[in-house]
Amino acid sequence: MRTSSSILSLQLSVLGIIPFAFSTYLSWTNQMLFDESGSYLFTTYSAIILSFLSGTLWGQCINKRISTMSQYLLISSNVIALGAWFSLLLEVSSLSIALLLLGFISLFWVEARSLREENSVHSRYLNMRFGITLIVCVLHLLMLYPHD
């Protein structure tokens, strides 16, 4: 049975795809928004979302005893968030987007591994995260595909 929080999580996740899709559209049609390119909007939004999702790993560790897995989650979340920040410093947008793509894949892998190791019964959540991550990764690949 789905709870109201899981329905809200799904709705917010789907709404979170809109800026990715819109900035991909802007990039593919060579349009600008607020004097910014679709590529710039995509990269900055991607870095923000990747950093936010990395921070959710911290939330998973707050009320748990310190274990090897919780240390792994904390370190992984920091490395991924720093990678997202570093991607904004790169002057080649395709490198930034490729780094962010690797960040989303890595984050999903880390989170899935942690939930499976804990024998957690979050299959609905993991399925939702997989679907959303897949869509986000496809949009990253579309941004990397030559279209100028």
UniProtKB/TrEMBL annotation:
Superkingdom assignment: Bacteria
TM region(s), chain numbering: 7-28, 40-59, 71-89, 95-114, 126-145
Alphabetical UniProt keywords: Membrane, Transmembrane, Transmembrane helix
Pfam families hit by this protein: DUF3429 (PF11911)
Transmembrane keyword on record: yes
Protein name: DUF3429 domain-containing protein
Source organism of the structure: Marinomonas colpomeniae
